[in-house]
Design goal:
Layout: E1 2-6, E2 12-13, E3 22-23, H1 27-40, E4 44-46, H2 56-64, E5 71-76, H3 83-96, E6 101-105, H4 111-116, H5 123-141, E7 146-149, E8 154-158, E9 172-175, H6 179-188, E10 191-195, H7 199-214, E11 221-230, H8 234-244, H9 250-261, H10 266-275, E12 283-285, E13 288-289, E14 302-305, H11 307-319, E15 324-328, H12 332-342, H13 344-347, E16 363-367, E17 372-375
Parallel strand pairs: 1-4, 1-15, 4-5, 5-6, 6-9, 9-10, 10-11, 11-14, 11-15
Antiparallel strand pairs: 2-3, 7-8, 12-13, 13-14, 16-17
Helix pairs in contact: 1-12, 3-5, 5-6, 6-7
Length: 376
């Protein structure tokens, strides 16, 4: 298993839908998160994309210079970006980061936001564009000279003068729950990402993607995007979950749910169906809680519990084929430590970092005669 964390460039805090306990997500703060998860042993970080976020490419470029091993999962936006320009950007950042770039393909799901970026294609047309985009993008990163004419995109004499480090290209992560999305993901992706639905639904999706990938003679890995709320006891974890939405009122839920209705994203519709826009019955599967999705778009579920329970749920997803876990929690700095310190050891997750020889645990006493430290 590989574990990723999240860089909250759209905002962070202790509670949802309120300014109470909110934090300014300026560069010093997101650098703090990135350096923490780098030291804790996470494989990488997902940096979100969209109108409400700072640009992920600029953010990742800056963070790559202040981290050592951390990988950066950042979005290409077919339709918003040209494949030739996106290929040059990917090659450059792959060089700068010494091969630590991962690509998150995002076709978009909110017609209003897409219109603001000049995109007016329908849902299925966006996936047609994505398919052509990736045909061109992958060929360019493989150092081919590209002449291409499709239904939506055309390139003559395209090429990359300064290729990236990873061959043939940085790994492609791809989410999309619709039939159109799954077809493109099966053809192009290295890792298929799904949001945190109950295991049975995730298993069905995995089987569908595998069958579609087999038509292309390909095999695909699978990842889960989900929040986590882990505490030393189940009681503390559920209290933290309920506290997260303690300032979410009915009006906030109503406004958020109205926005989600306009989305043509099948994945978003599935997230909304899990919480039904209501506070009751938010535990939709043992220790899988849909409270985040009441007011937050995208990933709307969290695994909640003590370390043993959370580890058990993660193993359940692993058993059905998930080997990449893209996690987040509020606030993101503290929750990254909570998960790493409490759950990593139970999963045998190797952090693969050398000891600095620094003290571990608080110094509580010193025996001057024996010249020994007593530590917790």
């Amino acid at each position: 298993m590989d574990f990723f964390w999240f860089i909250p460039t759209y905002g962070d805090g202790r509670y949802l839908a309120t300014t109470k306990g909110a934090r300014e997500t300026n560069f010093p703060y997101i650098k703090q998160i990135a350096q923490a998860v780098d030291e804790l042993g996470y494989e990488g970080v997902l940096i979100p994309t969209g109108k409400s976020c700072n640009d992920p490419w600029v953010t990742a470029s800056a963070l790559s210079t202040v981290t050592q091993k951390l990988k950066f999962l950042i979005a290409v936006r077919p339709g918003v970006m040209k494949p030739t320009v996106a290929a040059r950007m990917a090659a450059t950042l792959d060089q700068i980061s010494n091969g630590r770039l991962l690509i998150n393909v995002v076709a978009g799901g909110d017609p209003v936001e897409l219109a603001g970026d000049g995109i007016f294609a329908s849902h299925d047309e966006r996936y047609e564009i994505t398919d052509e985009f990736l045909d061109i993008w992958r060929a360019l990163l493989a150092e081919e000279k590209v002449d291409y004419e499709g239904k939506h995109l055309k390139v003559e004499g395209g090429e990359i003068m300064f290729p990236g480090i990873q061959k043939p290209h940085p790994p492609i992560y791809f989410g999309g729950s619709s039939d159109a999305g799954i077809k493109v993901a099966a053809k192009h992706s290295d890792v298929y990402l799904t949001w945190g639905e109950p295991p049975r639904q995730v298993k069905e999706k995995i089987e569908k993607v595998r069958a579609e990938a087999a038509k292309h003679g390909r095999e695909v890995e699978f990842g889960l995007r989900v929040h986590v709320i882990v505490r030393e006891t189940n009681e503390e974890a559920w209290k933290a979950a309920n506290d997260l939405i303690k300032y979410v009122d009915d009006e906030a839920i109503k406004k958020a749910q109205e926005v989600f209705k306009r989305y043509d994203s099948v994945g978003q519709k599935k997230m909304t169906e899990l919480n039904k826009g209501e506070r009751g019955n938010l535990e939709i599967y043992p220790n899988l809680w849909a409270g985040v999705g009441l007011v937050r778009g995208g990933c709307g579920t969290a695994i909640v519990g003590d370390p043993e329970t959370v580890a058990e749920r993660i193993r359940e997803y692993q058993e059905i084929g998930i080997n990449k876990f893209v996690l987040s929690g509020y606030p993101h700095l503290e929750e990254a430590y909570q998960f790493a310190e409490l759950v990593f050891p139970l999963l045998g997750y190797k952090q693969d970092k050398k000891s600095t020889g620094a003290p571990k645990g608080e110094v509580v006493g010193y025996d001057y005669t024996a010249e020994k430290l007593a530590r917790v």
